[in-house]
Specification:
The chain is of the alpha/beta class and about 240 residues long. It folds into two domains: about 1-105 and about 215-245, 3-Layer(aba) Sandwich (Rossmann fold), CATH 3.40.50.720; about 110-210, Dihydrodipicolinate Reductase, domain 2 (2-Layer Sandwich), CATH 3.30.360. The protein contains eight helices and eleven strands. It has a six-stranded parallel beta sheet with strand order 2-1-3-4-5-11, sandwiched between helices. A five-stranded mixed beta sheet has the order 7-8-6-9-10, covered by helices on one side. Helix 1 packs across helix 7 (about 215-230).
Length: about 240
């Protein structure tokens, strides 16, 4: 049985807990034991019981508390919080030199496949313009989404870095240049997540999209990542490495 702690008591954190507590192995035994769930109080994290894996789906402001807990418990970390600065990401990479850590802006296997398809299309259609549009629920705090940033990274790598991200457009912005990649955020309602990548050429268009019907797909992927990460040597892993290697 894998002992897990959850950082974050919002919708994702609550769903992770409910799913983990209901999960059973082939013999009918519990797959997980939730030893702690904490919200935004660093003192609460400091008092929490040690786990094998910490799943952090909280807020960028909670990173220090998550790092302190991981170092105290000497546990693996499944990091799913988005909106981190580059400095905060470097803190996570530094933690990976001590402990096994995985960070992803999206724990859906379908989104992982979408990233691979986007990279292939961007390479094989070099003359096509690329636009990325993401839509999320009204309460989402960061924009663009972590997934949209990951998709942008795939396009950037496929185009050898010769891209210029443009985050929305307004006014007399002039004609689009060939290096632009538009990244657009839409917010409203209770949308779990929709990501669309359009590759627009002369007289033809390729559209790749992923639609999440609920947050359950992200929870399932995060718990699977936790099982695969536990017991690994220290390192800063990708979701792809855990799921497909």
């Amino acid at each position: 049985m894998l002992r897990i702690a959850i950082m974050g008591a919002g919708r994702m954190g609550s769903l992770i807990r409910a799913t983990a507590e209901a999960a059973r192995d082939g013999a009918g035994g519990a797959r997980f034991q939730v030893v702690a769930q904490v919200g935004y109080d660093p003192a609460e994290a400091a008092r929490a019981e040690a786990a094998d894996v910490l799943l952090d789906f909280s807020n960028a402001s909670c990173l220090d508390a998550a790092l302190a807990y991981a170092r105290s418990a000497r546990c693996a970390v499944v990091e799913g919080t988005t909106g981190y600065t580059e400095g905060q990401m470097e803190q996570l990479r530094a933690l990976g030199r001590e402990l096994p850590v995985v960070w992803s802006g999206n724990y859906s296997v379908g989104v992982a496949a979408l990233r691979h398809l986007v990279a292939q299309a961007a390479r094989e259609l070099p003359g096509f313009d690329v636009e990325i549009v993401e839509c999320h629920h009204a309460a989402k705090a960061d924009a663009p989404s972590g997934t949209a940033r990951m998709l942008l990274d795939e396009v950037t790598a496929a185009r050898d870095g010769a891209v210029r991200p443009v985050y929305g457009r307004s006014g007399m912005c002039g004609a689009r240049d060939a290096a632009e990649v538009g990244v657009h955020a839409v917010r409203g309602g209770t949308v779990a997540g929709v990501h669309t990548v359009m590759l627009l050429g002369d007289d033809e268009e390729v559209t790749l999209a992923h639609r999440a019907a609920s947050r359950q797909i992200f929870v399932n992927g995060a718990l699977e990542a936790a099982q695969r990460l536990a017991g690994r040597p220290a390192g800063f892993y990708t979701f792809d490495e855990l799921m497909f290697s």
